[in-house]
């Protein structure tokens, strides 16, 4: 498995289903995914966004690889590469113990740890990873299942960021200011403009095709418009920089 899947962007229907399941509003959900992944669950190569945790791999494997492979098996967290570099670490660990490696990475928009596959609604970590590869909707629903199973939907709904961060990010949450970051992100989404799902979809698909939309945030900026125009020109669709259904349909057809 090379971990490259469809990587379908989140849909309005998928987001509404998650909001309904958690009984929260959009700003709460956006706050979590913004802090966890900067708001995008897939890399430009359509692999799920991950973070490999070497201390979890050490724990999952009883420390038997610590001495020989301290960069990927170590009781002390660290060694992060971020982005696609994390897959190099995952691949190295998977050669030693694939199941433990998958359980030792956090996956998708919600960055749910693989060892929590059952709380996320799956029978195995392999099944969880496969769904993460398919779509952000699946990533979001896995997060919703995990939050409900862990009782974290309640502090999320109440904007109790300290309790939520402690349960979601662990007892050392304050070291990385997770609660403060969540509170700040939530406040940001209390006011317009909120991310536009059509714009966000275009940004993800443009990035898959090698264009640079300047990030995936659902907001139209110069780089997003330039990327849209570049794609249209490359496809003989004129020089418009509009983000509309015509563009989305052409982008979907181009992403194979």
Structural notes for this entry:
The model has no long low-confidence stretch (mean pLDDT 96). The chain has two domains: 177 residues, no CATH class; 58 residues, no CATH class. The chain is built from 13 helices and three strands. With 256 residues, it is mainly α. The protein is 52% helix and 3% strand. Helix 9 crosses helix 10. It has a three-stranded antiparallel beta sheet with strand order 1-2-3.
What distance separates the N and C termini?
18 Å
Contiguous helical run count: 13
Strand order, biggest sheet?
1-2-3
Instruction: Give the class from helix and strand content and strand pairing.
Output: mainly alpha
Please give the domain count.
2
Residue ranges: pLDDT <50 for 5 or more in a row? none
Strand content is under 5%
Q: Which key features would you list for this structure?
A:
256 residues, 2 domains, 3 strands, globular, mainly alpha, single chain, three-stranded antiparallel beta sheet
